[in-house]
Amino acid sequence: MTDKKKVLAISGSTRTNSSNERLIKKIAALAIADIELTLFESISELPHFNPDLDNTDKLPSAVIAFRQQIAAADGILICTPEYVFTLPGSLKNALEWCVSTTLFSQKPAGLITASASGEKGHEALQLVMKTIEAKFNGATLLLIKGIKSKIDMDGNITDDKTLQEVQTFTASFVKLLN
Ligand SMILES: Cc1cc2nc3c(=O)[nH]c(=O)nc-3n(C[C@H](O)[C@H](O)[C@H](O)COP(=O)(O)O)c2cc1C
């Protein structure tokens, strides 16, 4: 029996019990045999990115903790809505704090955009993650449109096609981690 892979999950929605957070928990349940998933809870505590602080002795402690969590993870799962046709500012801000590092370089990543529509945000997410050299492929990408009508408040995916897509995505992400 192999050890479970450590995954840090980041939700691009700061809303309590958001659909993206529920989706992360669903994926954690689907992959429970293979993955030990930790939800990054502190995205709202990251200060605005400031190059003057980056990689200096003034690096904010919340950023240091965030970077340590990424470094300790075997892979990253991002589930995010699209806001005004791109990434939510808080997620973009978190990723900006990593641009000067190699933390994401060759780090396996599963990237889900779960939104009302989401195409542009999904493209932007891929471009950012490619730029910081995260390791992902077509099977570890998923766009879920109309998410609010496809997952209930208990995190059950109520749409059969979406459930199948999430199951296939999860299996591919587990494969990428191994
Ligand atoms: C400020 C704001 C901007 C939004 N812009 C978009 C958008 O451009 N495209 C889209 O598909 N949905 C947009 N939405 C709707 C979100 O997709 C929807 O609220 C989604 O369910 C949020 O995910 P959550 O449930 O995880 O918070 C926007 C929502 C907010 C609050």
From TrEMBL:
<dbReference type="Pfam" id="PF03358">
    <property type="entry name" value="FMN_red"/>
</dbReference>
<dbReference type="GO" id="GO:0016491">
    <property type="term" value="F:oxidoreductase activity"/>
</dbReference>
<feature type="domain" description="NADPH-dependent FMN reductase-like">
    <location>
        <begin position="6"/>
        <end position="131"/>
    </location>
</feature>
<dbReference type="InterPro" id="IPR005025">
    <property type="entry name" value="FMN_Rdtase-like_dom"/>
</dbReference>
<dbReference type="GO" id="GO:0005829">
    <property type="term" value="C:cytosol"/>
</dbReference>
<dbReference type="GO" id="GO:0010181">
    <property type="term" value="F:FMN binding"/>
</dbReference>
<protein>
    <submittedName>
        <fullName>NAD(P)H-dependent oxidoreductase</fullName>
    </submittedName>
</protein>
<dbReference type="InterPro" id="IPR029039">
    <property type="entry name" value="Flavoprotein-like_sf"/>
</dbReference>
<dbReference type="InterPro" id="IPR050712">
    <property type="entry name" value="NAD(P)H-dep_reductase"/>
</dbReference>
